[in-house]
Amino acid sequence: MDIKLLNKISDYIWEIPPEGEMRVPGRIFGCEAIVEELDDNVVTQIKNVACLPGIQEASIAMPDAHWGYGFPIGGVGAFDPEEGGVISMGGVGFDISCGVRTMRTGMTREEITPYIQKLVDRLFAIVPAGVGSEGKIRLNQKQIDDVLTGGAKWAVSNGYGYKEDLRYIEEEGVVGGADPAQVSETAKKRQFKEIGTLGSGNHYLEIQYVAEIYDESVAQVLGIKRDDILVSVHCGSRALGHQIGTDYLKTLAEASRKYNIPIHDRELVCAPIDSPEGRRYFSAVYAGINCALANRQVISHLVREGFSDVIPKARISILYDVSHNTCKVEEHMVGKKVKRLFIHRKGSTRAFGPGRKEIPEEYRTVGQPVLIGGTMGTCSYILTGTETGMKLSFGSACHGAGRAMSRTQAKKKWRGDELLKGLASQGIIVRTHSYSGAAEEAPGAYKDVTAVVDSTHNAGLAKKVAMVKPLACVKG
Length: 476
Known about the structure:
This protein is α+β, with helices and mostly antiparallel strands. The protein has one domain: tRNA-splicing ligase RtcB (Alpha-Beta Complex), CATH 3.90.1860.10. Helix content is 33%, strand content 25%. It has 14 helices and 19 strands. The strands form four sheets. Strands 7, 8, 9, 11, 15, 16, 18 and 19 form an eight-stranded mixed sheet that branches. It has a seven-stranded mixed sheet with strand order 1-2-3-4-5-13-12, sandwiched between helices. Helix 5 (141-157) crosses helix 9 and helix 8 (238-258) runs antiparallel to helix 9 (276-310). The protein is globular, with a radius of gyration of 21 Å.
């Protein structure tokens, strides 16, 4: 985009001045190079979100922002129901509560090296992945409703993990207010066999080692040190979440017309938060969140089983679990007033600063862990939220590298089998159910995750703690 059209607030914060029907400015985070490369379609989406009723402060885009459905991926919007604020499916996305869970193993890189091939083969065998993948858990109607209200707590109560795990999951593993009655039978049926599965696309299970520590004191609080082995899981609510999005597009389109909400993009259809349609969609989103939390909890149980089969001395513990496709009710300071806001984060991670009661007590002095996934050929990051980020972005940060090219373009440029051979030559083992899917996720198809994270850090949204690199990756 033409950077001259923006107001430069700092080297890492830029604003689109309000024009036309924009109620607030657009706010873009990123270094000059990242902002200059921003697609004009993303800028249009930022402006369109800024026109929605009840939006607060700014329509926000993170350094990993790229074109999405309605909202840009990497978009954040806060809405006040007392000012006619709306809830939009485009601000949540189809993969409701897609997120990252990072686990410690109690092992070092040196200790795991002799077992790595056998370990990744075992995890590939027992953690279902790929398009339409099914798990061993078979649910009936009542059980799926229990999942949608119980989240990770349901999983733990059914033997998938430990009560202690819940302390280190966003919302302690479950959000209240989910109503399974607002989720279609079609959505539920699609999930009967998908609990405990990775899915496809950019979802993964990765064995990583801590390559760099940027803040020793914070890393100590998080229980990590250089060369520690971690396992990260990236996935969401699978087919159920996608079906909820599909089902409510029609409902919200009708609501937009019913309540005379001006929509500049048909993908931004929405309803007033306090309308019957808005409440129904919101309770369905919460059901989707609980589904995703249960899904990652069951996968964690399978990871424990896989490690136990290969390396019995490993001890898997949860570092943190946080989502990046949600709409949630949170309290934030706007001006001099604390407001109850509905925060849409579409491809954006919650990043609460120190002191927030929502953070596990052990982490409260340093801020919430923020888990940023990179690519299977580069690196990922662990950050913590900041007080500055609370003020600038409603406690939000980036969620990953962000795509630089479409999946179709990536498949034209890379062959999956050759890509995996190249990664193997770098010491990175990748097991996949689809060479075509692997090509879509080629590291070169993404932005530079280090530049994205550095922009996030330098803007003050979140603070770098550690960089982790992949040893092995399971893909769909």
